[in-house]
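Customer escalation, tier 2.

The customer says the design service returned an amino acid string that "doesn't look like it belongs to this structure." They asked us to rerun it and document both sides in this ticket. The original structure tokens are below, unchanged.
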């Protein structure tokens, strides 16, 4: 089970950190990803943290502004979002996959959280 939290309403240029707590699995051996879906758009890849290699990938639109991290002692993955823009407004979903690779395709993920809304005003 995945539980995302921490979303909210912020202004452009602000920072926000969202979290995703996992239960019922060996978190330290789970690849975790973040995706987002804006109104009227398809869900897109944001970031991934692979458990085995430590590799992290980011979507082009967030590279250099967002950082994914994980705390295996708390079974939690975070997404630190800096320099937020109105186009970052979306529902953010965390996802988990059993594979070790840092997948950027949503169909490769096995479990999904309920999403947390992030709204950035201009």
């Amino acid at each position: 089970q995945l539980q995302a939290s921490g979303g909210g309403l912020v202004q452009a240029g602000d920072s926000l950190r969202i979290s995703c707590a996992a239960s019922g699995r060996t978190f330290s051996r789970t690849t975790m990803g973040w995706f987002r879906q804006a109104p009227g758009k398809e869900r897109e890849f944001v970031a991934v943290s692979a458990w085995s290699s430590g590799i992290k990938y980011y979507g082009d639109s967030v590279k250099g502004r967002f950082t994914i991290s994980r705390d295996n002692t708390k079974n939690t993955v975070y997404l630190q979002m800096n320099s937020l823009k109105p186009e970052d407004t979306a529902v953010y979903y965390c996802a988990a996959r059993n594979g070790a690779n840092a997948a950027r395709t949503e169909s490769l993920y096995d479990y999904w959280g309920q999403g947390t809304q992030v709204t950035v005003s201009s």
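Tier 2 assessment: The sequence is consistent with the input. The mean pLDDT is 94. The CA atoms of residues 91 and 121 lie 15 Å apart. Sent an explanation to the customer and offered a walkthrough call.
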